[in-house]
Write a structure and sequence with these properties.
With 102 residues, this protein is mostly helical. It has helices at 4-12, 20-28, 32-58, 64-88.
Length: 102
């Protein structure tokens, strides 16, 4: 249950400062687990942003509509799962980018 508040803040920052808060926490905190989570949160936001942008372009071909819905739901639900995991003390890796950071 170490650093639970910081973990919750990193996940919750998705809705108010998705890049700024994890970046600041990465610079300030010395804990490797928090640094890893901060990098994952930033990368997740970047990847989801790119996927939503590509989906918006693909709306012309209609394939983008279900893609933008799925990625939009992921952008909202994944941080909630992260918050719940932080509260329960479980480890959490962001989907897509979690395996990129060791």
């Amino acid at each position: 249950m170490e650093n639970t508040g910081l973990k919750i803040l990193i996940h919750a920052s998705t809705w108010f400062a998705p890049f700024l808060v994890p970046f600041i926490i990465f610079l300030v905190v010395d804990d490797d687990e928090i640094k890893k989570l901060s990098i994952q949160a930033i990368l997740f936001q970047l990847v989801i942003g790119v996927l939503i942008f590509i989906s918006a372009i693909l709306i012309i071909f209609l394939i983008g509509i279900p893609m933008i819905i799925i990625f939009g739901i992921m952008a909202f639900v994944v941080p909630i799962i992260g918050i719940v995991k932080a509260i329960t003390g479980s480890t959490f890796n962001y989907p897509i980018v979690g395996s990129w950071i060791r």
